[in-house]
C-alpha cells in the first residue's frame, strides 16, 4: 500500500524508511569493515567502493585510497584482465556467481594469487556494476604447491626407493612399494593382493607373515633384523625399522622400512669366516714363526756353541785343554812385541818327555793320554798366570815365558824337573816321566816364535843327547849339525805316529815280455810344516839318527800288506821290491823280522825282492854274505841298487846271492849322447849275463834309451817312460787295464 504524497503519514513512513536504510547501510558497512575477505563494488571497470581488507590485499592503506582506481590495474596485464572479463561476464550475466583463481597485482607491482568471486548487482542492468569478493590465497597456493611437491617426492621415494616400504594398519598390509615386491619375489600387483586382508589369513606362511605378526604387537618403534621368506622359499635377511605414521593417532598404522641385507650378511659371514680363517692362518703362521724364531734362536745358539767349539778346537789341544800351536803363535806375537817395545826378556822352553812312546806302546794309548793330561796339569801349575803352556802334539810342549831371562828360564826348567820327580798315578800304574828341555832366549836365539821354538827344539835335542832328564840352553854351536838335518830328525821322530809316511810304487817292466813283473816301493814323507821331503834327503838323516830301523820296518810291513791286497785282487804273480838301508841290513834279527812279516801277511818270500846298496858289504862282507844267504834261503830275492856308483867287485858279486843288478840311472840319463855311458851300460849287462845275473835299467825316460837297453839285452826297465811312482790305488788301476806290449813295439 502506498501513501498519498505530501501527507504526514507519508512523511512518517519516509522517515521510518530512511531510518531503516541508514541502519541497513551501517550494518552493511560494519559487515564490509569486519569481513575477512576483500569486497569491492566495480562499476565501469573502476573500483567504486571496497572494504578495508580489499585495500589491504592490494597494498593500499585505506579503502578511500583505492576508490576510483581502474580495476585493470589490479591485474597483471590488460590481456589477463580482458580474459577474466571474457570468462566471467557470460555466466554473471545469467545471475550466477563466477568463481576463479587468478594472479593479481598489488600496488607495489608484486603479483599474487587470489580467489575471485564475482556477481552482477543486477544481471538485467550490468551497468549497475558488480560485487567482487577477493581473497589472497598466495600463501595457501604456496603451501599447497609445497604439499603436493612433498607428496610427489614421497611417492617418488616410495616407488623408487631401494628399500622395501610397507604400511600396516592393525596387522593388515595397506600399501607396499615395488622394491618390497621385488625383494620378496612378487610382482607389485600380486603383493598388493595381500593388502587389506587380516594378517592371520593373508600371510599364513607368506613372506610377510613375520612382519604382520610383529606389526600386530608392534610398538611402532621396531628396529632390528628380521628374516622374511622369499616367495621361492629361501630366507631374506632384512634390517627393519617401523614407525607410527602418526604417533598421536595410532589408528593411522605404521610404516615399515626393510632393507635386504642378505647379501651383506652373506658377505659379512664370508668376511667373518675369511677373517676367522685369516686369523687362524695368522695365528698358525705366528706359531710357525715363533717356532721358526725359536729354531733360529736355537740354531744361532748352536752355531755360537759350534763356533766357540771350533774356535776352541782351533786354539786348544783337545786332550789336555792347553793352548795349541796356533794359540801359542797368537800369544807369542803379543808377548814378543811387548818384549821388543819394553826391552824386556822372554824365554821359550821346548819340553819333550823322555821315553813317553814306551808308555804308549806298552800300556796303551789310554794310559798315555791320561798321563799327558796329568803332566799338562803339573806344567800349568809350575808357571805363572801370564806364561803360556802349549802342547804341540805327542809328548812335546812349549812354554812361553814373557819377562823370563836365562836365570828365570833355568828356574822354571828346574821346577819342571822337580815337578816330574813325583810319580804319576794313572789307574793302577805308578809312572815316572822325566822331561828333556831346551831353552831359547829372545832375541838372540830367535826373533819370532818359529825360530825361538826351533832353537829350543835343537837345544832340547842336545839335552836328550846329553843323557835326558835335563835342560840345555840353545847355543849357536848347536848349529854345527845342520839345522835342516836336526829339523828333519826331530820332525821324523813324530812322523810315524802322525801317519805322515806313505808308499808310492813304480812298475818294473820285463823287456822280453812287456809284463809288469814287480813294483818298487818308494817311501814318501809329507811333513805338515816342511812339506813333501824327498827320501834322498830324509833317508840319510833317518840312517844317521837310527830311526831308519823303525821306518824301514814300517815300509816292509806296509809294502807286504799292500802286495797281499794286490794278490787278493788277482795279480798273484806280482812282486814287490823294497829298498833296504845298510843299517837295516846289518840288524841281526832282519831275516827273522822279514820272515815274521811275510808269515803274518801270508805272502810267499818269492814275491819279495830286497834292493840293497853296493855299500852293504863294505864293512863286513862276511856277515853280509851270511845275511844274504839266510834271506835268499828263505826264498827272498836280492838285488843290488844303483849299481855302478859303489865299490862292488866282481868277486864279491860272485859270492853274493844276487839275482839282479839295477843299473844306476846316472848311466841311463845320458845314453843318447854319451858313448861312455853306453859302453858302461853295455859292460854291466855283459858282465851280469856272464854271471847269470839279471839287469834292470833305472830311470828310463825315452824310447831311445829303451831301444838301446833292449838291443843290449837288458832284462828289465823302470822309469818315467813307463810310469812315475804312483799310489797303490793307481797301481791297482794300472794293473787292471795293463796290456803287455810286444817287445819290439813302443810301450805307450
Ligand atoms: N832305504 C830306503 N830308501 C828309499 C826308500 N824309498 C826311497 N828310497 C831311496 O830314496 C832315493 C830317492 O828315491 P825317490 O825320490 O823315490 O826316487 C826314485 C824314483 O822316483 C826315481 N825315478 C824312477 N824313475 C825315474 C825316471 O825315469 N827319472 C828320474 N829322474 N827319476 C826316476 O828314482 C828313484 C828310484 O830309486 P832306486 O830305484 O831305489 O834307486 C832312492 O835312492 C831310493 O832308493 C825306502 O823305503 N827305504
From TrEMBL:
Highest taxon of source: Bacteria
Entries under Pfam families matching the protein: EAL, GGDEF, PAS_9
Domain (EAL): residue spans on this chain: 485-739
Span of domain GGDEF: 344-476
InterPro entries, sorted: Biofilm_reg_signaling, Diguanyl_cyclase/Pdiesterase, EAL_dom, EAL_sf, GGDEF_dom, Nucleotide_cyclase, PAC, PAS
Protein name according to UniProt: EAL domain-containing protein
Organism, scientific name: Comamonas jiangduensis
Amino acid at each position: 500500500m502506498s501513501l498519498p504524497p505530501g501527507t504526514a503519514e507519508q512523511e512518517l513512513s519516509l522517515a521510518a524508511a530512511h531510518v531503516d536504510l541508514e541502519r541497513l547501510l551501517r550494518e552493511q558497512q560494519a559487515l564490509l569493515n569486519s569481513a575477512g575477505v576483500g569486497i569491492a563494488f566495480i562499476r565501469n571497470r573502476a573500483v567504486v567502493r571496497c572494504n578495508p581488507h580489499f585495500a589491504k590485499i592490494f597494498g593500499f592503506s585505506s579503502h578511500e585510497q583505492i576508490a576510483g582506481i581502474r580495476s585493470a590495474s589490479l591485474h597483471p596485464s590488460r590481456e589477463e584482465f580482458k580474459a577474466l572479463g571474457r570468462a566471467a561476464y557470460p555466466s554473471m550475466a545469467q545471475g550466477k556467481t563466477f568463481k576463479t583463481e587468478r594472479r593479481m597485482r598489488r600496488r607495489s607491482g608484486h603479483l599474487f594469487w587470489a580467489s575471485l568471486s564475482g556477481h552482477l548487482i543486477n544481471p538485467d542492468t550490468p551497468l549497475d556494476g558488480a560485487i567482487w569478493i577477493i581473497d589472497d590465497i598466495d600463501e595457501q597456493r604456496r603451501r599447497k604447491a609445497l604439499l603436493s611437491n612433498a607428496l610427489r617426492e614421497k611417492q617418488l621415494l616410495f616407488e623408487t626407493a631401494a628399500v622395501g616400504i610397507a604400511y600396516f594398519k592393525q596387522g593388515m598390509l595397506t600399501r607396499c612399494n615395488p622394491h618390497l615386491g621385488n625383494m620378496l619375489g612378487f610382482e607389485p600387483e600380486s603383493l598388493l593382493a595381500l593388502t587389506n586382508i587380516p594378517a592371520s589369513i593373508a600371510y599364513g606362511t607368506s613372506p610377510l607373515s613375520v612382519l604382520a605378526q610383529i606389526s600386530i604387537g608392534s610398538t611402532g618403534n621396531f628396529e632390528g633384523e628380521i628374516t622374511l621368506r622369499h616367495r621361492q622359499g629361501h630366507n631374506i635377511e632384512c634390517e627393519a625399522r617401523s614407525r607410527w605414521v602418526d604417533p598421536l593417532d595410532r589408528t593411522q598404522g605404521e610404516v615399515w622400512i626393510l632393507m635386504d641385507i642378505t647379501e651383506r650378511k652373506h658377505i659379512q659371514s664370508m668376511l667373518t669366516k675369511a677373517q676367522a680363517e685369516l686369523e687362524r692362518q695368522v695365528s698358525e703362521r705366528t706359531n710357525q714363526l715363533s717356532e721358526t724364531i725359536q729354531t733360529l734362536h736355537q740354531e744361532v745358539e748352536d752355531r755360537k756353541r759350534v763356533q766357540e767349539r771350533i774356535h776352541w778346537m782351533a786354539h786348544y789341544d783337545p786332550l789336555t785343554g792347553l793352548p795349541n800351536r796356533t794359540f801359542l803363535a797368537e800369544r807369542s806375537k803379543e808377548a814378543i812385541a811387548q818384549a821388543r817395545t819394553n826391552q824386556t826378556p822372554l824365554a821359550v822352553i821346548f819340553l819333550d818327555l823322555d821315553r813317553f812312546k814306551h808308555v804308549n806302546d806298552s800300556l796303551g794309548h789310554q794310559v798315555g793320554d791320561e798321563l799327558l793330561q796329568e803332566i799338562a796339569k803339573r806344567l800349568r801349575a809350575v808357571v805363572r798366570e801370564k806364561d803360556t803352556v802349549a802342547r804341540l802334539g805327542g809328548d812335546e810342549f812349549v812354554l812361553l815365558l814373557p819377562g823370563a831371562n836365562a836365570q828365570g828360564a833355568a828356574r822354571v826348567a828346574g821346577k819342571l824337573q822337580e815337578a816330574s820327580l813325583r810319580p804319576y798315578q794313572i789307574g793302577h800304574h805308578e809312572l815316572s816321566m822325566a822331561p828333556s828341555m831346551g831353552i831359547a832366549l829372545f832375541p838372540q836365539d830367535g826373533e819370532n816364535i818359529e825360530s825361538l821354538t826351533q832353537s829350543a827344539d835343537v837345544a832340547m835335542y842336545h839335552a836328550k843327547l846329553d843323557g835326558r832328564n835335563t835342560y840345555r840352553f840353545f847355543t849357536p854351536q848347536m848349529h854345527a849339525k845342520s839345522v835342516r838335518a836336526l829339523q828333519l830328525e826331530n820332525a821324523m821322530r813324530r812322523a810315524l805316529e802322525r801317519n805322515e809316511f806313505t808308499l808310492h810304487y813304480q812298475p818294473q817292466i820285463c823287456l822280453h815280455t812287456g809284463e809288469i813283473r814287480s813294483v818298487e816301493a818308494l817311501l814318501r814323507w809329507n811333513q805338515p810344516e816342511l812339506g813333501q821331503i824327498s827320501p834322498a834327503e830324509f833317508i840319510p838323516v833317518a840312517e844317521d839318527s837310527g830311526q831308519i830301523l823303525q821306518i824301514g820296518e814300517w815300509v816292509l810291513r806296509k809294502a807286504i800288506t799292500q802286495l797281499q791286497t794286490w794278490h787278493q785282487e788277482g795279480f798273484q804273480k806280482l812282486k814287490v821290491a823294497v829298498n833296504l838301508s845298510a843299517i837295516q841290513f846289518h840288524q841281526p834279527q832282519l831275516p827273522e823280522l822279514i820272515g815274521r812279516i811275510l808269515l803274518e801277511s801270508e805272502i810267499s818270500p818269492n814275491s819279495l825282492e830286497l834292493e840293497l846298496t853296493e855299500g852293504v858289504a863294505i864293512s863286513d862282507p862276511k856277515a853280509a854274505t851270511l845275511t844274504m844267504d839266510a834271506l835268499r834261503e828263505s826264498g827272498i830275492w836280492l838285488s843290488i841298487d844303483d849299481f855302478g856308483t859303489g865299490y862292488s867287485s866282481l868277486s864279491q858279486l860272485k859270492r853274493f846271492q844276487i839275482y839282479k843288478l839295477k843299473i844306476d840311472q846316472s848311466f841311463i840319463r845320458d845314453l843318447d849322447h854319451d858313448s861312455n855311458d853306453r859302453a858302461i851300460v853295455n859292460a854291466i849287462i855283459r858282465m851280469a849275463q856272464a854271471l847269470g845275473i839279471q839287469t834292470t835299467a833305472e830311470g828310463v825316460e825315452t824310447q831311445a834309451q829303451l831301444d838301446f837297453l833292449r838291443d843290449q839285452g837288458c832284462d828289465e826297465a823302470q822309469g818315467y817312460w813307463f810310469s812315475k811312482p804312483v799310489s797303490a790305488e793307481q797301481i791297482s788301476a794300472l794293473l787292471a787295464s795293463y796290456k803287455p806290449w810286444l817287445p819290439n813295439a813302443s810301450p805307450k
